Amino acid sequence: MKILIIGGTNFIGPSVVHRIHAMGHEVTIFHRGKTLAELPLGVKEIKGDRAQLLELKSEFQQLSPDVVLDMILYTEQDALISMKTFKDIAQRVVAISSMDVYRAYDVLLGKESGIIPVPLTEDSPLRQQLYPFQDMPQRALNAPADYDKILVERVVMSDAELPGTIIRLPMVYGPKDPLHRLFPYLKRMDENRPVILLPENFAQWRGCYGYVDNVAHAIALAVTNPQATGRIYHLADLQVSEAERLNQVGKAAGWQGEVISVPRHYLPAGWNLPFNTEQHWFADTTRIRQELGYSEVVSQAEALKQTIEWERSNPPPEMPKWTGLELFDYATEDEILTRLV
């Protein structure tokens, strides 16, 4: 099978390329050439910007891919161009989406009321408001203001002539994570802090995470299995409370400290997270496991080990912007701790 991957050189992409290539398929990646990645021998490259897709249609026709995996569809316009480019060329388009399409995401952010039942399934209600990052002063990974995976999914799944597959990703962690999801807590562990204090409501909150190689394995299955045509899948390999997740990280890091859940009235006002933590955000992964035979290829212990080793060797130049400075207000933390004991 011939597979064309749009993107494929950042974070998740190289692992996807390696897995599909190892399965015996012919892989070509289309990318800007700005990110270096170690690719298997035999993988072909076409360099260009996704804004040039239509201009390069004749080149894609010569390539004649069976399936196109588009890993960088952020906007409705992106999706429209991609589908127009590959109509009459490919048999299917696989689009990478996100768990942020669900209404539970807006409830979590306080944009919608009510609590959505969990675990989320692929049929759970979607957000009622579009453009989730539009009003955010700092958008993760420089996402455009008109980012919206709901609109991307509508375009990809509504073309009768070019079938689609959607994969909704969890929060992905692992080596080369551009968001350094583990680093702020790992830094505290490596600085031998005796405790990590978590607001009680956040300590109990459950989200969904996926290790990069497990996510890549799931994507490879969806790309190469015709049974995935017309289907929507999501996946996750870690869906525990935040307190339990940090305890697992601590164990893997060799930390001897303790994660402590703190009632709100003990905390300074600035430590109250601006989230509705009554809304959990974890998912049922039955569909991809039953239909495509997905299971984790990397154990939880090994996933954390590999991630911790990379984070220690590649600390970010500054603290990730998604985390609050209160994490490193050790004096206040120590004062709270004295009132707790």
Automatic annotation (TrEMBL):
Domain NAD-dependent epimerase/dehydratase: 3-71, 149-235
Domain of life the protein comes from: Bacteria
Alphabetical list of PANTHER family matching this protein: BIFUNCTIONAL POLYMYXIN RESISTANCE PROTEIN ARNA
Protein name as annotated: NAD-dependent dehydratase
Organism: Chroogloeocystis siderophila 5.2 s.c.1
